[in-house]
Amino acid sequence: MRIACLQHVSFEGPGNIATWAATRGHSLRTIQLFQCQPLPRLDNFDLLVVMGGPMSIHDEADHAWLVPEKKLVTQCLEKNRFVMGVCLGSQLLAECLGSRIYRNRVKEIGWFPLRRLAGAGGSAYFAGMPEQMDVLHWHGETYDLPADCIHLADSEGCRVQAFEHPSALGLQFHLEATAEGLKDLIGHCGHEIGAGRYEQTPEKIAAGERLHRETTQAALFGILDGIGQRMKTA
Q: Is the pTM of this model over 0.85?
Protein backbone atom coordinates (compact mmCIF):
# COMPACT_ATOMS: atom_id res chain seq x y z
CA MET A 1 0.00 0.00 0.00
CA ARG A 2 1.23 3.48 -0.89
CA ILE A 3 0.62 6.05 1.84
CA ALA A 4 0.86 9.81 1.30
CA CYS A 5 1.13 11.82 4.52
CA LEU A 6 0.36 15.55 4.51
CA GLN A 7 2.40 17.35 7.19
CA HIS A 8 1.55 20.93 8.20
CA VAL A 9 4.43 21.77 10.55
CA SER A 10 7.86 20.29 11.20
CA PHE A 11 6.96 19.06 14.70
CA GLU A 12 3.79 17.06 13.90
CA GLY A 13 4.90 14.21 11.69
CA PRO A 14 3.52 10.69 11.20
CA GLY A 15 5.33 9.27 14.24
CA ASN A 16 4.06 5.77 14.94
CA ILE A 17 2.07 5.76 11.70
CA ALA A 18 5.46 5.54 9.98
CA THR A 19 6.44 2.75 12.39
CA TRP A 20 3.31 0.82 11.48
CA ALA A 21 3.90 1.31 7.75
CA ALA A 22 7.46 0.02 8.05
CA THR A 23 6.45 -3.08 10.05
CA ARG A 24 3.66 -3.92 7.59
CA GLY A 25 5.78 -3.38 4.47
CA HIS A 26 3.92 -0.31 3.18
CA SER A 27 5.58 2.73 1.61
CA LEU A 28 5.02 6.12 3.23
CA ARG A 29 5.87 9.45 1.64
CA THR A 30 5.60 12.65 3.67
CA ILE A 31 4.63 15.87 1.87
CA GLN A 32 5.70 18.92 3.87
CA LEU A 33 3.12 21.53 2.96
CA PHE A 34 4.83 24.15 5.14
CA GLN A 35 7.83 23.80 2.79
CA CYS A 36 5.55 24.32 -0.23
CA GLN A 37 6.06 20.77 -1.47
CA PRO A 38 3.50 19.85 -4.15
CA LEU A 39 0.45 17.76 -3.30
CA PRO A 40 0.42 14.21 -4.64
CA ARG A 41 -1.79 13.15 -7.54
CA LEU A 42 -4.67 10.82 -6.79
CA ASP A 43 -3.06 8.00 -8.74
CA ASN A 44 0.15 8.23 -6.68
CA PHE A 45 -1.24 6.93 -3.38
CA ASP A 46 -3.75 4.47 -1.95
CA LEU A 47 -4.21 6.04 1.51
CA LEU A 48 -4.03 9.74 2.38
CA VAL A 49 -3.10 10.63 5.97
CA VAL A 50 -3.63 14.25 7.04
CA MET A 51 -1.70 15.24 10.16
CA GLY A 52 -2.25 17.91 12.82
CA GLY A 53 -0.96 21.42 13.33
CA PRO A 54 -1.46 24.50 15.52
CA MET A 55 -3.25 26.52 12.83
CA SER A 56 -7.00 26.57 12.23
CA ILE A 57 -8.54 25.16 9.09
CA HIS A 58 -9.96 28.69 8.63
CA ASP A 59 -6.45 30.23 8.34
CA GLU A 60 -6.31 30.12 4.55
CA ALA A 61 -5.01 33.71 4.33
CA ASP A 62 -1.93 32.73 6.35
CA HIS A 63 -1.52 29.22 4.95
CA ALA A 64 -2.43 29.26 1.27
CA TRP A 65 -1.78 25.50 0.91
CA LEU A 66 -4.98 24.83 2.88
CA VAL A 67 -7.06 25.64 -0.20
CA PRO A 68 -5.59 23.00 -2.57
CA GLU A 69 -5.29 20.57 0.35
CA LYS A 70 -9.04 20.76 0.96
CA LYS A 71 -9.64 20.22 -2.75
CA LEU A 72 -7.48 17.08 -2.67
CA VAL A 73 -9.35 15.69 0.35
CA THR A 74 -12.67 16.40 -1.37
CA GLN A 75 -11.47 14.60 -4.50
CA CYS A 76 -10.46 11.60 -2.38
CA LEU A 77 -13.94 11.45 -0.86
CA GLU A 78 -15.55 11.71 -4.29
CA LYS A 79 -13.30 8.99 -5.76
CA ASN A 80 -13.46 6.62 -2.75
CA ARG A 81 -9.77 7.12 -1.95
CA PHE A 82 -9.45 6.55 1.80
CA VAL A 83 -8.47 9.47 4.05
CA MET A 84 -7.43 9.36 7.70
CA GLY A 85 -7.35 12.73 9.46
CA VAL A 86 -5.59 13.36 12.79
CA CYS A 87 -6.54 16.38 14.94
CA LEU A 88 -6.33 19.31 12.49
CA GLY A 89 -6.58 16.67 9.78
CA SER A 90 -9.87 15.42 11.20
CA GLN A 91 -11.21 18.98 11.35
CA LEU A 92 -10.24 19.51 7.72
CA LEU A 93 -11.88 16.22 6.80
CA ALA A 94 -15.05 17.15 8.70
CA GLU A 95 -15.26 20.48 6.86
CA CYS A 96 -14.88 18.74 3.50
CA LEU A 97 -17.81 16.53 4.56
CA GLY A 98 -19.94 19.61 5.23
CA SER A 99 -19.52 20.12 8.98
CA ARG A 100 -19.00 23.35 10.88
CA ILE A 101 -15.63 23.81 12.59
CA TYR A 102 -15.66 26.05 15.67
CA ARG A 103 -13.99 26.73 19.01
CA ASN A 104 -14.62 24.00 21.57
CA ARG A 105 -16.03 25.05 24.95
CA VAL A 106 -12.72 24.01 26.56
CA LYS A 107 -9.20 23.27 25.41
CA GLU A 108 -8.05 19.67 25.68
CA ILE A 109 -4.28 19.45 26.09
CA GLY A 110 -2.94 16.36 27.81
CA TRP A 111 -3.84 12.75 28.57
CA PHE A 112 -7.56 12.30 29.23
CA PRO A 113 -10.00 9.39 28.85
CA LEU A 114 -11.47 8.56 25.46
CA ARG A 115 -14.79 6.68 25.54
CA ARG A 116 -15.71 4.23 22.79
CA LEU A 117 -19.38 4.63 21.90
CA ALA A 118 -21.93 1.89 21.23
CA GLY A 119 -21.90 2.60 17.49
CA ALA A 120 -18.20 1.74 17.34
CA GLY A 121 -18.89 -1.94 17.94
CA GLY A 122 -19.51 -2.56 14.27
CA SER A 123 -16.56 -0.49 13.10
CA ALA A 124 -13.73 -2.27 11.33
CA TYR A 125 -11.38 0.28 12.90
CA PHE A 126 -12.67 0.68 16.46
CA ALA A 127 -14.11 -2.73 17.30
CA GLY A 128 -10.89 -3.73 19.10
CA MET A 129 -10.57 -0.51 21.07
CA PRO A 130 -11.15 -0.67 24.85
CA GLU A 131 -14.30 0.98 26.15
CA GLN A 132 -12.13 3.65 27.77
CA MET A 133 -8.46 4.57 27.48
CA ASP A 134 -6.29 7.61 28.08
CA VAL A 135 -5.10 9.28 24.88
CA LEU A 136 -3.23 12.46 24.04
CA HIS A 137 -5.34 15.50 23.18
CA TRP A 138 -4.07 18.84 21.90
CA HIS A 139 -6.80 20.99 20.40
CA GLY A 140 -9.00 24.02 20.99
CA GLU A 141 -11.41 23.61 18.09
CA THR A 142 -13.97 20.94 17.30
CA TYR A 143 -16.74 20.11 14.82
CA ASP A 144 -20.22 18.70 14.49
CA LEU A 145 -20.55 15.07 13.45
CA PRO A 146 -20.58 15.04 9.63
CA ALA A 147 -23.71 13.74 7.93
CA ASP A 148 -23.85 10.01 7.17
CA CYS A 149 -20.96 9.29 9.54
CA ILE A 150 -20.76 6.98 12.56
CA HIS A 151 -19.89 8.61 15.89
CA LEU A 152 -17.15 6.39 17.32
CA ALA A 153 -15.83 8.12 20.45
CA ASP A 154 -16.21 11.09 22.77
CA SER A 155 -14.64 12.54 25.92
CA GLU A 156 -15.80 14.70 28.80
CA GLY A 157 -14.30 17.75 27.15
CA CYS A 158 -15.28 17.16 23.53
CA ARG A 159 -18.34 15.43 22.05
CA VAL A 160 -16.94 14.27 18.69
CA GLN A 161 -13.54 12.62 19.15
CA ALA A 162 -13.74 10.15 16.26
CA PHE A 163 -16.01 9.46 13.31
CA GLU A 164 -16.20 6.97 10.47
CA HIS A 165 -17.25 7.69 6.89
CA PRO A 166 -17.36 5.06 4.11
CA SER A 167 -14.16 6.59 2.71
CA ALA A 168 -12.60 8.22 5.76
CA LEU A 169 -11.75 8.13 9.44
CA GLY A 170 -11.37 11.22 11.60
CA LEU A 171 -9.47 11.17 14.91
CA GLN A 172 -9.46 14.35 17.00
CA PHE A 173 -6.78 12.90 19.31
CA HIS A 174 -3.20 11.69 18.86
CA LEU A 175 -2.28 8.01 18.93
CA GLU A 176 0.76 8.52 16.71
CA ALA A 177 2.88 10.64 19.08
CA THR A 178 6.32 9.30 19.99
CA ALA A 179 8.45 10.54 22.91
CA GLU A 180 10.62 12.61 20.55
CA GLY A 181 7.61 13.98 18.66
CA LEU A 182 5.83 14.93 21.86
CA LYS A 183 8.94 16.71 23.12
CA ASP A 184 8.97 18.78 19.90
CA LEU A 185 5.25 19.49 20.20
CA ILE A 186 5.63 20.71 23.79
CA GLY A 187 8.63 22.82 22.79
CA HIS A 188 6.73 24.55 19.97
CA CYS A 189 3.23 24.71 21.45
CA GLY A 190 3.68 24.57 25.22
CA HIS A 191 2.70 28.26 25.40
CA GLU A 192 -0.85 27.22 24.48
CA ILE A 193 -1.32 25.41 27.80
CA GLY A 194 -3.47 27.26 30.30
CA ALA A 195 -5.01 26.33 33.61
CA GLY A 196 -8.22 24.78 32.32
CA ARG A 197 -9.77 21.59 33.63
CA TYR A 198 -8.50 19.60 30.65
CA GLU A 199 -5.03 21.15 30.38
CA GLN A 200 -2.01 19.42 31.91
CA THR A 201 1.50 20.66 32.60
CA PRO A 202 4.25 19.87 30.09
CA GLU A 203 5.85 17.56 32.66
CA LYS A 204 2.66 15.54 33.10
CA ILE A 205 2.13 15.36 29.34
CA ALA A 206 5.66 14.04 28.78
CA ALA A 207 5.26 11.50 31.57
CA GLY A 208 1.96 10.34 30.07
CA GLU A 209 3.67 9.21 26.88
CA ARG A 210 5.85 6.79 28.84
CA LEU A 211 2.86 5.56 30.81
CA HIS A 212 0.54 4.99 27.83
CA ARG A 213 3.02 4.17 25.04
CA GLU A 214 2.11 0.50 24.64
CA THR A 215 -1.68 0.95 24.76
CA THR A 216 -1.80 3.88 22.35
CA GLN A 217 0.51 2.21 19.84
CA ALA A 218 -1.54 -1.00 19.99
CA ALA A 219 -4.74 1.01 19.42
CA LEU A 220 -3.18 2.86 16.48
CA PHE A 221 -1.90 -0.34 14.88
CA GLY A 222 -5.35 -1.93 15.27
CA ILE A 223 -7.01 1.02 13.54
CA LEU A 224 -4.48 1.05 10.71
CA ASP A 225 -4.71 -2.71 10.26
CA GLY A 226 -8.47 -2.26 9.92
CA ILE A 227 -7.95 0.38 7.24
CA GLY A 228 -5.50 -1.89 5.43
CA GLN A 229 -7.93 -4.79 5.51
CA ARG A 230 -10.77 -2.61 4.25
CA MET A 231 -8.64 -1.48 1.32
CA LYS A 232 -7.79 -5.07 0.42
CA THR A 233 -11.45 -6.00 0.18
CA ALA A 234 -12.77 -2.75 -1.36
A: yes
